[in-house]
Amino acid sequence: MSQSTHANTAVLPKAFVIGWPIAHSKSPTIHTHWLKQNGLSGSYEKIAVEPCNLERFVGSLKDNGFVGGNVTIPHKEAILSFVDVVHTNAKRLRAANTVWFEGGKLHADTTDGYGFLSNLDQHQPNWDQSSDGKALVLGAGGASRPIINGLIERGFKTITLVNRTKERAESLVETLRDLGIGSSMVVGDWQDRSELLAECSLLVNTSSLGMVGQPPLDLSLDALPSSALVTDIVYTPLETNLLRDAKARGNVTVDGLGMLLHQAVPGFEHWFGVRPAVTDELRQLVLSTT
Ligand code: ATR
């Protein structure tokens, strides 16, 4: 949908982020910055929507002049029941974070995997080609699914998943195998996580460990090859202990803030008709509000 389409109808495009709670969301800072930076008219607002009101909220989007928006916890799965078109990755991961109107229909997709991959592409170009295709993923919660899906898309040959609750990792791998995309997956034991590093060219923390207010990630990096790339989805603090320790021993690291910024790009383009740039200025702006 282009900005001129909106201008012709003299209706300013409105987008939203919904969640319950929603106060913590950084998305308004990102999208409002892009609207301003691109000289576009429009708005992006935070709306607290209780789970019991989700269907009604989605049903009233058109009448309220919304072109689409972001969907966060706890609505990422429930939203799929209320849209017209569910795109492949959202279907596969049973979760969506972005909805938009296209051809009169409400579409839903997940852009978290795109955000994860684009962050690495931006900060470490060709990271997926220079690696030998062996990743170790820590954590099997909601955040891990799009990341693993992204690594599978990029052709990783072995993805070892370790999670404190092993059954959760096994069940995730089983789901991916059922979808015909889990053949590269191996489940390891949480207590073996430090030794499993010996085999990996990419280490990703998708668990909440190391986040402000959470326990630290207890991991010895001694076995990690010095050529391995290390990334963390935690961005508060921006330099987690994992990233600090990895950098200190010479590994290349990429912090998690870029994933948040890049996942916002496809939504903005759908709603406002311009593909926005993830710049250092935006990073600084979001950091200043963290
Ligand atoms: P999200 O949807 O944001 O990923 P989540 O589903 O609660 O959040 O998952 C959080 C992840 O951090 C999980 O992998 C969780 O492990 P469990 O599945 O065993 O709960 C992991 N995690 C959280 N606290 C942890 C801890 N103290 N030790 C080890 N792993 C932990």
Describe this structure in words.
This protein is an alpha/beta fold and 290 residues long. Helix content is 36%, strand content 19%. The protein has helices spanning 3-9, 27-37, 54-59, 88-93, 112-123, 127-130, 144-153, 166-178, 193-196, 241-248, 257-263, 265-272, 280-288, and strands at residues 14-19, 43-48, 66-71, 85-86, 98-102, 105-109, 134-138, 158-162, 185-188, 202-205, 229-232, 252-254. The protein has a 6-stranded mixed β-sheet. α10 links the parallel β11 and β12 (252-254). α5 (112-123) crosses α11 (257-263). The longest helix is centred in the middle third of the chain and has 13 residues, at 166-178. It is globular. It binds 2'-monophosphoadenosine-5'-diphosphate (ATR). Residues 139-143, 163-165, 168, 207-209, 215 line the site of 2'-monophosphoadenosine-5'-diphosphate (ATR).
Please write out the topology:
Layout: H1 3-9, E1 14-19, H2 27-37, E2 43-48, H3 54-59, E3 66-71, E4 85-86, H4 88-93, E5 98-102, E6 105-109, H5 112-123, H6 127-130, E7 134-138, H7 144-153, E8 158-162, H8 166-178, E9 185-188, H9 193-196, E10 202-205, E11 229-232, H10 241-248, E12 252-254, H11 257-263, H12 265-272, H13 280-288
Parallel strand pairs: 1-2, 1-3, 4-6, 7-8, 7-10, 8-9, 10-11, 11-12
Antiparallel strand pairs: 3-5, 5-6
Helix pairs in contact: 5-7, 5-11
Bound molecules: 2'-monophosphoadenosine-5'-diphosphate.
The site of 2'-monophosphoadenosine-5'-diphosphate has 13 residues, from loops.
